[in-house]
Structure formats: structure tokens, C-alpha cells
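Reopening this one. Same input as before:
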Amino acid sequence: MSDISADLGTGRASVGAVLDYAWTAGEFTATDAMASTAITRSTAIEALATLVGAGILTELPNARAAGAYRAGRPARRFTLCPDLGVVAGIDAGDTHLAVTIADLLDTSLAHRRVDLDPEQTPDERRATILQHLEQSLADAGRTRESLLSICVGVAAPVDRDGTSPPHRQGFWERTNPALATALSDWAPVVEVKNDALLAAVAEGSLGAAVGCRDYVALLAGERFGGGVVVDGHLLHGAHGGVGEGVVFDHIIGVGSAFGLSYAVQDEVRAAVTSDEIDWRGPVGRLSDGARIDPRVVLVAAAEGDPDAVLVCSRVGEKLARIVGVLGSMYDPARVIVCGAIAESIQPVITAARAMLPAQMHLPAPDLLASSLGAEVVSLGAVATARRAARERAVPLLAERRLATV
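Same output, byte for byte:
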């Protein structure tokens, strides 16, 4: 239940109960609220009147006025006010930025995605993020004053205060350039979280982990990072480091926290150098470029190209080792490969599944590709911002307004 009654006395507990109910009810009547909150009809009506008076709920035209009621006294209908405010979900990756402005229930109002220069200084990166947040609000026809909560996902461990620990090469400080402080006056609630943790939120609410209590969402495109859920709880750690990919620098057969996009490129070049792949073939010719698009190789493997299949088998072995480590540490029922690369990663997953049992003593987890694509972190950020608005920002708004009622 909301904490409205904490500052306003137990007599307002019914207001918090009705507000909690309103989040998932859509349009509802006093009878609906009474049945779902176990309060009396008179108490429900009083709570509804209070919330309407405070501008938290709005009363809809009755059924007769809407042309849907023919006889008897029509029931009064209520819903959350549509103009309570909006939330922002931000995916601030190493090389990209995505900003989503959304309402409190189920609609995205604006979304923009741009490339970021990984050589930006922390100050430049912070300014870029704030600029695109401002522009996204304008795209949605909203202002800073309408923001109730913000959630930002970054490619770094993040503690409960939104701060990342120091990194030897300064990477974490650059990817999270004091964003919690920079955004503190933009909204009543601001949260900065690890991007893989937000991917786990998205998978658990919208994706391949719905209904699963033990899983790892593995961001695997540019760098490895795992969002870990055990017994239905997101694991965090003292510094937000649970699932941090730097561990794979020390795993034989993996050797790096760089993700599957780089692994595909490395295996193509290694196979050409060792003459396992003819450099004149469709896959071999890719090694002439400065960068190999991994999707070209993955699509070729799905179509049966033997050179691409060889590469995917080698990358699959690396993925099996990674999942073996995660499986042995956290005992998940599922490991979900997330990010843009998941859209074409199936040939690697197929190869990894065959090798995975040899990497573990525990039963191997189901290894799956996410269906949420490149926006998985954005989706998790929006879901987290909406939850923060529901549990913290709107109750605070209601407390302020009810204090004057």
C-alpha cells in the first residue's frame, strides 16, 4: 500500500488503498474499489471524493451520458487523472543513447535513439544526456515540471545512491558521469541503475522470463553484463556489481568482457589466419574490413553457410563457458541473451546449448534469445520509472495535495 497515511494519519489509509487499486483498475466504480480494497461503501466514496478533490483521480461521464446505459441510476466511474505527469526511461550505453518519455500506465509519448561518441569526456556525455532528455520532453509536448520519475541505465555497476565505483581506466566514471546528481532536480524520484539489471526487469515483465523466479538477463552485444534474479529478487550487491562482466577477463576460453559482437569478428579473422576459412569466400572476404558486421555472419550461418557455421560454433563454445559460469554461480532456470544482437544470435545459441552440459555439474539452464531487441534496457528503465512513480512520486504528490484538503 502507498505511504500516504504515514504523514497524514491512519484516517487516510483508505485513500492509499483506493489509489493503489486505481493503478491497475483502468475505469472503475465505487463498488469496484470497495470490493477490491475491503473497505465499506461510505469509506470508499469518501476516499474517492478526496482523491478527485486533490486532482489525483478524475470522474468520468456516467454511463447514461456516454450512451451505454438505459435504465436505473448509472454508477459513477473514476480513473487516474491523465495529466498527473510522465516518466523518463533512459538507456545511456557506451555508444548509444535512448530516451523514452511515457505516461504512467502503458503509452510511450516520445522516443529518440542516437549514437554517442565513446571518446566523450564525462562532462560532454552528461551534457548530451541532459540535452536529449530536454528534447524528448519537447517531442512529447511536456516540460520538466511534468516529470515524476526518471530511471537511467548505464554500462557500469551502480550503488543504491546512483554512484558508480572507480574504474582503473575511468570507464565507469565516464559511462555514469554523476547522473544522479545532475538529474536530482529534474524529478521527485531519480534512479540510476546498471543496464543489465534493467534488462532483467524488462525480461521479467515483458519478455522471456515472465513467470520465472530464477534467471539471468545477459547483455551480450558490446560487453557482457548480467542482470541476476534469484528467488524472484533482483540481486544488487554493495556496489551494484552483481553480474559485472569483468569476471570474464579471468575465465579461460573467454578472456574478455567484450561481447559476442567482438567474438564473432575475432573468430572470423582467426579462422582466416589459420586457413580454416578461405579468405576469398563470402565470410572470409569480410576479414578485409576494419570492422565485421556480426549480423552478416549470423544470418549466413542461419542460411547454412559452412564457414559461418564454423564461426558460430566457436562463438557458441565461448557463450557456453559464460553461461556455465553464471549457471554455477546463480543456478538460474533460464539465461536470456539480450540486446540488439539477440535478433540474429540463434545459430550461436544452438551451438552453445550442445556444449553447455559439459560446462556444469548442476542442470544446465534454458538458454534463450530475447525478443525485446535493442530496446530491452529502455523498456526496463521505463518499467522501473513507472514503478517509482506509482510507489513514491504520486503518493508524495497526493500527500502534498491532501495536506491542503
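So the earlier flakiness isn't reproducible anymore. For the record, The first helix runs from residue 4 to 8.
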